[in-house]
Amino acid sequence: MFEKGNTSVVQKQAQTGISNPVIVAEVWAEISALLQKEFGSAAFKSWIAPIVPQSFNNGVLELSVATRFVRDWIKTHYVDRIRQLWAQNCGPIVRIDIVIATPAAPAVEKINGVLAERTANANETSAEVPAGSDIPSSPLDLRFTFENFVVGKPNELAHAAARRVADSDTVAFNPLFLYSGVGLGKTHLMHAIAWAIRARSPQRKVLYMSAEKFMYQFVRALRFKDTMSFKEKFRSVDVLMIDDIQFICGKESTQEEFFHTFNALIDQNKQIIISADKSPSDLEGLEERLRSRLGWGLVADIHPTTYELRLGILEQKREMLKRDIPQNVLEFLAHKISSNVRELEGALNRIIAHSELIGRPVTIEGTQDLLQDLLRANDRRISVDDIQRKVAEHYNIRLSDMHSPRRARLVARPRQIAMYLAKGLTEHSLPEIGRKFGGRDHTTIMHGVRRIEELILEDRSLREDVELLKRAITG
Ligand code: ADP
Ligand code: MG
C-alpha cells in the first residue's frame, strides 16, 4: 500500500486521478453517508446533501454548490473533514475546490449518462415523470432496477412481491409492506417497481418519497396554509410509495394525515407500497389503527444476506463496472463483510477507486490493508445466535432451550442471561430479541433483562458468570 508523501504515487495520481465520474460519485456517496452520521441529518440536509461532486483530477477534488453562502459555510465547517475522509477512502488529496454552479451542473448529467449506459435496460431508465406532473416525487436512482437486483433466498419473497406489483395492472396486494434492517435492498426494490411501472404504463402516476420528505411536505403545507393542494396531490396518484415509514413513528399529526391519504387511496383501489425497518407489529410509536392497516396487504421481509447472495451481488457489480477484480478478492469480501449490502458495495468501490488511483491491480493483500477498519468492525459485530450458543455451552444446556417454552430454572436462568447479554451487546430492539428467543414477547425479554440486572447486584457467582461470558463473547 502506498504512503502519504510518496512522490511516485503522487505522480501516478497526477497522471490518473479518478477519471471515472461514476466512481467519483460513488466515493462521494460513501463519504456523505459518513458525514451524515457524524454531523446529524439536519446539518447534513442543509449543507452536505446539496454538494455535487464534479471531478477528481490531479489530486484536486472539485465540488459544486449553489450559492456563495453555502460554499463559505462548508469551507469553514466541513472541508477539513471531507478532505480527511476522501484521503482515507481514496488516497492522497492535494486540494478541494468548491465552485458555484446551478444545481444541474454538467457533471451530474455526465454521471447520470454513464450510469444509464451501465444499466441493462436503457428503455426503462430513460422513462421520465409524465410531463406537466406537479407531483413532487423524489428522484429515482438509475441503478436501482430489477435487472440490477440479485435474487437469493433472503430476498426472494420481497422480490417476487415487488415484481408482482410492478407487473400487474390491477392492485395485487394493498399495501405491499417491505421491511428489513438497513442496506438490504428495500429502497432498491421500491425504485425498481417505480421504473418498471413507468416503463410499462407511463400514464400511471407514480409517487415515490421518503416518509421524512412526506412529513416535510406536510409541515410546509401546514405552514403555508396549503393543505388542500397537498391532499389533492397525494390523492391523485395511482401508485404511492413511502420509504422508511418508521420515520413518522411518534409524529402524530403526520401519521394522522398519512392515515387519511392511505385510506383515500385504498378506497380508490390505488396501489400503496411501504417500507420500514421493522414489521408493522414491531414498529413503536405507531397509532393502532394505522398499524393494523399497514398489515392488511402483503408483509414481506428481507432477511440478512447469505454468503451466496453477497458473492452474487459482488459478481454482478464487477460485471457492471467492467473491472478486473480477482475472484478470490470477491470471495474474501463476501466472507468478511456480512453486515449489509451497502457496506459491501462501499468496500468494493473503495478497492476500485484505490486501484485506479495508484494504478495497481487489486489483490487480497492490498484489500486487507485498505479495508482494515471495515473488516475489524465486521468481525466485532456480535449476533444473538453467538450469545445463545456461548451461554448454552457455558451452562451445559441445549441450544434449543433458548427457544423452547420450558420454564425450569435450570434453563430459564441461562436463557435470561442470554437475553440480558443480547440487550447489552447488540443493537437489536426488544421485539427483535424476542423473536430470536422462540418468538417471545418483548415484555418477557424486558422482564428477563431486569431480573438479571437485579441478580447481578445480589449474587456474586452469577455476576462472575456474566462477566466471564461477556468477555468470551466480545473477546
Ligand atoms: P435499504 O433501503 O434496505 O436500506 P438499499 O435499497 O438502499 O437498502 O440498498 C443498499 C445498497 O445495496 C444499494 O446500493 C442497493 O443497490 C444494494 N443492494 C441491496 N440488495 C441488493 C441486491 N439484492 N442486488 C443488488 N444490489 C443490492
Ligand atoms: Mg432505504
Give a description of the structure:
With about 475 residues, the protein is α/β, with parallel strands linked by helices. Helix 2 (about 20-50) runs antiparallel to helix 4, helix 13 (about 305-320) crosses helix 14 and helix 20 (about 430-435) packs across helix 21. It is about 60% helix and about 10% strand. The protein has helices spanning about 5-15, 20-50, 70-75, 80-90, 105-120, 120-125, 155-165, 185-200, 210-225, 225-235, 250-265, 290-295, 305-320, 325-335, 340-360, 365-370, 370-380, 385-395, 410-425, 430-435, 440-460, 460-475, and strands at about 50-55, 60-65, 95-100, 175-180, 205-210, 240-245, 270-275, 300. Helix 11 (about 250-265) links the parallel strand 6 (about 240-245) and strand 7. Mean pLDDT is about 85; it is low at about 1-15 and about 105-135. Adenosine-5'-diphosphate binds near residues 183 and 186.
Descriptive key words:
475 residues, 5-stranded parallel β-sheet, 58% helix, globular, disordered N terminus, binds adenosine-5'-diphosphate, binds magnesium ion
Order of adjacent strands in the largest pleated sheet: 5-6-7-4-8
Largest sheet data:
5 strands, parallel
* Rounded average pLDDT: 85
Count up the helices: 22
SSE run: HHEEHHEHHHEHEHHEHEHEHHHHHHHHHH
Overall radius of gyration: 25 Å
Structural class assignment = alpha/beta
Low-pLDDT segments, ≥5 res: 1-16, 103-133
What's the count of strands?
Answer: 8
Bound molecules: adenosine-5'-diphosphate, magnesium ion
Shape: globular
Could you estimate the helical fraction of the residues in percent?
A: 55-70%
Distance between the termini: 29 Å
Strand content: 5-15%
Oligomer category: single chain
